[in-house]
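Form 12-C: Joint structure prediction
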Amino acid sequence: MIEFSHVWKQYHKPDWALSDVSFAVAAGEMVFITGPSGSGKSTILRLMTRECPPTDGRILIEGMDIRRIPSAKIYVLRRTMGVVFQDFRLLAERRVFDNVAVPLRVLGLPSKDVKRKVFLALRMVGLHHRIWNTPAGLSYGEQQRVAIARAVVNNPRLLLADEPTGNLDPDLASEIIALFREINRQGTTVVICTHDREIVRKFAGRVLALREGRMRERGTAP
Amino acid sequence: MNGRKIGRAFRDAGGHLRRGKTRHAVSFAVLVLSFLMAGLFLSLSNNLRSRARILSRDVAVVVYLSPSATAAERRTIEDRVRLSPLVASVRTVTPEEAGDRFLKEFPDLRDVLENLGRNPLPASIEAILRDPAGPDAPIDRMIDGLRRLPGVEDIQFNRRWSDRVRALGRLSDAVGVVVGGLLILMSIAVVSGAVRLNILSRHEEISILHLVGATNGYIRGPFLLEGLILGVAGGTVAAGLVLLAARLFPLYLGHSLGALQDLIGFEPLSLLQAAGLVAGGGLAGLLGSLAALGRVFRS
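Section 2 - Result
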């Protein structure tokens, strides 16, 4: 599903954000990428979404070498994945429904299908009763659930999450990771970047540890 | 792009316009002003061209006779004119006929004529030319010959007037192009600024749209439409105001210009010219949006 092969990334000379990083994620896996702030976790996600290109090395997503995808066709890659951010990145002036509907409207789906899929996604995260609220009227945990609903509403094959529990208390964080686990059970490949090793310990899944841009350890949480 | 996507783009563009009311109102006002100026000069030029057409319809060499001219002198002049191969027909105008014609064309000046106590207008002989657009040299030679005859007070060749009026029309066109062009360039910059601010204020939404797989067209379409709608609306209002000016000018200001009313007046734009103003507005708005999108997305 995902293959990083000797990937290097440099934003500004002389520092390297990633140094010779190689790993692979199989379809249907749930993988945690851990490491302290600045270790390169977010860079890995930014490379996967092709927000930026690698300086060197090869990245394959579902067999596509993402460096070779022309800029005008990046949208094809991005439609196969959902992304969840630590700061949720919800549109404050839009209702929950409209926030979750964004990826479906981009696809140009009929309004009837949009309504049905949004309702199902919100029911999956337990927020179907908040459909007409604006994000400001929701708690942090609820806002993160809306962001997850938006990421999975078009049934992506790959779900990427950047510090999805960063702003949440431990109980809420566990609930959110349990939700990712449930999404993974339904067949979606899930990659979660987090600095919270406690949360990783609680949930079974492969762990890739980064430190100063290098892959230090690979293991499986109990 | 399917119908749903086009509908969505229009809805989004409407939303953009509602959200940035003040800056869009300024852009709209500048667009209207720019195209109004261009339209007014075009209308003025229409009027001058139409006057020139009327003048050239009746191109004649007019020989004004001296009040002291004898009957024999008049006959000689008339014969010389009539015998010229350049002349198609000859019309003699008595002072009374000239007075009647003057009062018909300038009824406001009746008092002036009456206060003089006498008719100051001379008798004349009007030579209608065979070829009104013919070369100047033979006509000038004929005029020089006539000028030397006794009893001739003055000679006017009214093709020169139509040429002058036509030149005024061209000048009006040129001024319209320069002034209107500069204002239109300014309006493109103002629209670009307004759209740019809108794009920047929606930066977060745009980054989310990119990440969920929106195409460039999906993201940029509403911003392009935003400029296009502003421009078309500005051009339409400007065309309407030019029409209004053409209707109201003779009623309120025209009379105060007296005889100059014929030259300084506005003639309604043709359908093609009005459509040109509307399309020009749309193009200016579109260029403004494109400039803004280019600048923001490049950076």
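Section 3 - Comments
Strands of chain B lie at 60-65, 87-93, 124-129, 152-157. The first strand of chain B starts at residue 60 and ends at 65.
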